[in-house]
Amino acid sequence: MPAAHIVSTGTALPGDVIDNEVMAGKLGISAEWIEMFIGTRKRHFAIDLETGKPTHTLADLGAQAGAQALARAGLEPEELDFVILATATPDTLMPATVNLIASRLCLNHVSTYQLQSGCAGAVQALDLARRLLDDQHRLGLVIGGDAGVKHFVADREMQGLPTAELVNYVLFGDGAGAIVVTSEAVPGAIVLRQVLNRFTGLGRAPGQIVRWFGAGDLARTESEPDPPFEEDYKAIEERVPPLAREALDEILSSTGWDRESTSYLLPPQLSGRMTSRITSDLALGQAAEISCVAETGNTGNATPFFQLDLLYDRIRPGERAVAIAIESSKWIKGAFTVEGM
Question: Please, what is the average pLDDT of the chain?
Answer without folding.
Answer: 93
